[in-house]
Amino acid sequence: MARRTKNRRIEPTFDAPATRRRGDDLTLGDGDRVLPSRQRRKPAKGKNAKRTPRKRTRRRSGRNGSNGRGLFGFLRTAVYWSFVLALWGGIAAVGITAYYGAKMPSATTWEIPDRPPNVKIVSADGDMIANRGMTGGEAVGLHEMSPFIPQAVIAIEDRRFYSHFGVDPIGLARAMSENVMAGRLTQGGSTLTQQLAKNLFLKPDRTIERKVQEVLLALWLEQKHSKDQILEMYLNRVYFGSGAYGVEAASRRYFNKSARDVSLSEAALLAGLLKAPSRLSPARDPQAAETRAQVVLTAMRDQGMIGDSEMTTAMSRPATRAAAYWTGSEHYFADRVMEELPGLIGDVKNDIVVEATVDFRLQKQAESTIRSLIDEKGGKLAVSQGALVSIDTTGAVRAMVGGYDYANSQFDRASEARRQPGSAFKPFVFMAALEQGRRPDSVRNDAPIKIGDWSPENYKGKYYGPVTLAEALARSLNSVAAQLAMEAGPKSVVELAHRMGIESDLKANASIALGTSEVTPLELTAAYLPFATGGLRPEVYFVKRITTASGKVLYRHDKPRMTRVASPEIVGMMNAMMQGTVEYGSARSARIGRPAAGKTGTTQQSRDAWFVGYTADLVTGVWFGNDASKATSATGSSMPVPAWKAFMEEAVKNRPVKRLPGSWRPGASSPGIAATQPDTRPVPQASVGGNGAQPPHERPKPPAAVPAGGNPGHTASVRRPVPPADVGGGSQRKQTSILDIILGN
C-alpha cells in the first residue's frame, strides 16, 4: 500500500473545492492566488463586492476632480521645477565661470595693451599725406571727434551703455526675444564694453570659454575705467572695414577728412559699419552702407538724440564717399618714408608725426602730368606706366610718382624698378672723357664704327661726320659716345657714375656708353644733382623731422650733407654741353624760359623713354614705359620731355631765375685742366667708310660748333692720337690729369 502510494502520480488541482488538506496536498486556495482567475472576474456578493467599487470610484474622482485644483497643481509643479532648474543652472554657470576664469591670468596682471602706433606723414607745408601702421589713423580724443560719432554708435550698438555695469541683462533679454520672434539671429547682446574686451584681449572664437572670459574682462574694464574712457578706447580701435581701424582712419578712408569734421550722415554711415564692416563697407557696397546708415539715423531719432528735421536732412543728404582714396600718388612717397624710418629712429613704439620733404602741390602736379600724358598718348604709343622724381639742390625729394595709379599697383617704379637708362647715361661717359683732358669743343668723327663684334648705330642710322663733343651729346650720337667710352675706359665711366650717385651695379664694358646697365629713376635723377650744384653731391633724403604726438623731437635733418665729386670747371663744361640738348638738341621742346639742361634717353625697341633735366634749383627725371619691359613706340622726346616741361613750368614759376653753375665758353681756358696743344692729326674714318654721314654744311649748326685751336677736321684738347673706330675689345689706359691727382683717382 505504501509502495503504491509512493509511486502514484499526483496531479495538482487548482479549481477543485476546498477540502481538508493533508500535509502533501498541492492544491491552492483563493487566498493563495496572486490574481483572480478568469472565472472569478464577475463581482461576488459579500464583503469583497462592496470594497472594490469604492476604490475604483475614489480613483475616478481623483482624476476628474475640479479644474481649478488641477491647474493649481500644474502651476505649483511648474514653479517648483523651474526653481530647481534655475538653481542648478546657476550652480552650473558659477562652475563654468570659475573653471574658465581659473584658466585666465590673475586680474592683478591685467592691463590695457598699447594701441598699435600710428605714423602720421605730413608734407613740407603741413598737408596730410597719409597714415601708416596697423590702425591707419591717429588716436582722437572723445572730446575732439565729432559728437555725432559716439551718439550714433551708442544708438545702434548699446543704447543702455551709460546705465549698465559692463553686461546688460535687459539688453541681452531683449536681443534674445527679438531673435526668437524673427526666427534667426538679428541682434547681439554684447555691450560696447564686451566688444572692447574682445578686441583688446581675445580671439574672435565663438566658444563658451571666450564668452565667459569676455564677460569677466568687461566687468574688470568697468571697474578700472570710466564710461567715456571705455567709449574712447572702443572708437579708436574698432574695425570699420577696408583696412581702417578707428574712427580717424575710417573718416580718412571713406570721406577724406578727419573724424573731427564728420557730419551727422557720415557718422551714421560709420556707426552702421560696425555690424558687418567688410560687407557693409561703402567701398564695396555703397547702397548697403547707405541703407544701414538710415537705420542708425532712425535709432538716433527714436532715442531723442536728434529731431525729425535733422533726420530728414541727413537722409536727404547722404554721406559722399571719397572714391579717389588710395589712388593718390602721395602714397608712393609715404611707402618710401616708412622704409626710411627704421634707419632714422629704430622701431616705432608710439604715435609719431613725420614731416616729409614732399611738396604736396608739386606732388599733385607730377601725378597729373604722368596721368594726362598716358591718357593722351599712351594708347597710340603703347605706354601704360610712368614715373617722375624731382629733387632740389639740397637733396630733398619734392615729388615722387611711382606709377599711373597707386590703387591698381603699389609697386614703386620710381625707386624700385631698375631699367636701362639708354642715352640718359651718356653724360657720365662724356664727363669721364672731360676729366681725362678732353673739352666740349674736341672733335670726333660721327660715323658707323665696330668695336669687336659690336656695332653701335645712331638713331635711324643718321650720321653727321666730324662733330664736337658738345654737339655729339646734344644730338645723342651713339657712335661718338662709344668712341669716348673706349678712350676713357669703361671702368673709368663706371667709377665716375658711382661717384656721382648711381648705386646699382654697372657692367664695365663697351656698351656702358649707351646705358645698358640698369638703374632706378630715383638714383639716375640723384646722379644729375652735381650738375646743378656745381660739383657737390647732396645726400638724398625724404624726412625733415620726426616728433612724437606731443611734439618731442626724435629726429631732425639739419644741414644738407654735401660731398664734392667733381670740379666746378668740369661741371661747367657739362652744363654748357647739356644746355645744347635743350637749346637745339633732342629736348628742344623742353624750353621753359630759363637756363635748363638735361639729356634724353631711349632704349632698344623703345622699352624705356627718359628725360632727366635740371635748373639751378631742381633736378627732375621722367620715365615712361611698360612693366615687364614690353616694347613701346615712345622716345625720350615724345613723352618724357613734354611731361618734364609741364611739371617744371609749375615747379619753378615762383622761383627767381638763376644761371646754371659754370661759365665755360668755346675757346675759353679752364683752370684746373691740364694745358694742352691741339692735336693736328686728322680724325680717322670708321672702317665701314662713314656711310650716311652728312657734310657739316648740310646739318643745323649748333651755337658752339667751331672747335678751339684748329679746324673742324682736327681733334682739339687730346694729348694722344685717337684710336681707329674699328679697334675693339680692350679698354684704353686711363690718362692721369692734375684733377685726378687732386681728387685722388
Key features of this structure:
Penicillin binding protein transpeptidase fold; five-stranded antiparallel sheet; alpha+beta; 16 strands; 24 helices; disordered N terminus; five-stranded mixed sheet; 745 residues
General description of the model:
There is one protein chain. The chain has helices at 2-7, 47-63, 67-102, 148-157, 169-182, 192-201, 208-224, 227-237, 247-255, 264-273, 277-280, 286-302, 308-316, 330-345, 360-381, 426-435, 469-474, 478-488, 490-500, 521-527, 529-533, 568-583, 640-651, 738-743; strands at 118-122, 128-133, 352-356, 385-392, 397-401, 443-446, 465-468, 536-538, 543-548, 553-556, 562-564, 597-602, 608-614, 618-625, 679-682, 714-715. Helices cover 39% and strands 11% of the residues. Residues 1-5, 55-66 and 670-745 have low confidence and may be disordered. The protein has 745 residues and is of the alpha+beta class. The termini are far apart. It is elongated. The longest helix has 36 residues, at 67-102. Helix 12 runs antiparallel to helix 13 (308-316). The strands form five sheets. Strands 2-1-3-9-10 form a five-stranded mixed beta sheet, covered by helices on one side. It has a domain at 142-316: Penicillin binding protein transpeptidase fold (Orthogonal Bundle). A hairpin with a 3-residue loop joins strand 13 (608-614) and strand 14.
Beta-strand segment tally:
16
Q: How big is the Rg?
A: 46 Å
What is the residue-averaged pLDDT? 80
CATH architecture of one domain: Orthogonal Bundle
Work out the helicity level: 25-40%
Proportion of residues in β-strands: 5-15%
Low-confidence residue ranges: 1-5, 55-66, 670-745
Output the strand order for the largest sheet. 2-1-3-9-10
> What composes the largest sheet?
5 strands, mixed
